Amino acid sequence: SGINAEYGGANDKQTKIDMTAPVVCNYFMDPAQDYKVVAAAMYFMVPSVHLDDTPLPTDTSLDVVQMGDLKTYYRAFGGNPDKDKYEKEIEALAKELGQGNSCLQLRQGLHCWVF
After folding, report:
1. 76: which residues sit within 8 A by CB, 6+ positions away?
2. CA 81, CA 30: separation in Å to the nearest integer?
3. Which of 30-34, 60-64, 102-106 is the most confident on average?
4. Total Cβ atoms within 10 A of residue 17
5. Choosing a second label site near 98 at 20 to 30 A (CA), which of 2, 15, 17, 84?
6. What is the signed CA dihedral for 111, 30, 61, 74, rounded to 10 degrees?
7. Whole-model pTM?
8. Which of 107, 99, 95, 101 has its CA nearest to residue 29?
């Protein structure tokens, strides 16, 4: 079971699916808990050859999610950041995106995308 099995042909169409890039990891972080990761999801892109008739997973822990066009922005920083560092980087990203010094919208739905 799992994504490797599904891509290997263990899906409803018994079709092998080529792995594509990027693989997107979405981490949901809670500012009230010093930006602790409280949930995570991993997204694999389906090759265009399968878009009209996407093989569906037989593993009930997996879902197919259709996303529209997506714009992503990122701000890279390293180390072992504490709450103050996250706050500083979120504010800087909000400012660069033209949201001034207010990043309330970013904080309410903070996502960290890793490619």
Report:
1. none
2. 14
3. 60-64
4. 19
5. 84
6. 10
7. 0.60
8. 107
